[in-house]
């Protein structure tokens, strides 16, 4: 009986942690207005294609963006841009960018630092 209880509790914990960074792409699209100029949207590629976030892993985007928010990564523009978002809003925006799929144009000659596809090309 204790083994069953432990197994059920473990499964519940794992299911909660698996969805810990699950954001809402529809809400994220609304919140991403400040992000679009640099990082693009579903209809605009952004300023530089190396900054495009479309198709990137939402969990990784959330973790990295939280590092900007907390000051673990220093970048004046990003630190200021994410300062007023809470973690749920960041998760939603990350889910929105993941839902976009990969951008139409990416150069095989330029490796984007932190890209999710390390060695997958």
Quick tags:
6 helices, 50% helix, mainly alpha, 121 residues
Oligomer: single chain
CATH architecture level-2 label of the domain at 23-99: Orthogonal Bundle
| The CATH fourth-level homologous superfamily of the domain at 23-99 | Cytochrome c-like domain
Report the sheet-strand fraction: under 5%
CATH fold-level label of the domain at 23-99: Cytochrome Bc1 Complex, Chain D, domain 2
Helix-strand category: mainly alpha
**How many individual helices?**
6
| Computed CA radius of gyration, to the nearest angstrom | 17 Å
Order of helices and strands: HHHHHH
CATH class of the domain at 23-99: Mainly Alpha
Tell the overall outline. globular
- Calculate the mean pLDDT score and round it: 78
Largest sheet: none
Task: Kindly report how far apart the N and C termini lie.
Answer: 49 Å
């Amino acid at each position: 009986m204790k083994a069953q209880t432990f197994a059920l509790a473990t499964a519940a914990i794992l299911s909660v942690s698996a969805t810990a960074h699950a954001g809402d792409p529809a809400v994220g699209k609304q919140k991403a207005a400040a992000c679009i100029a640099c990082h693009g949207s579903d209809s605009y590629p952004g300023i530089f294609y190396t900054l495009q976030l479309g198709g990137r892993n939402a969990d990784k985007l959330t973790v990295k963006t939280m590092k900007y928010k907390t000051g673990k990564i220093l970048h004046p523009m990003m630190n200021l841009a994410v300062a007023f978002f809470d973690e749920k809003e960041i998760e939603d925006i990350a889910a929105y960018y993941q839902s976009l799929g990969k951008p139409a144009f990416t150069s095989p000659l330029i490796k984007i630092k932190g890209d999710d596809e390390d060695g997958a090309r």
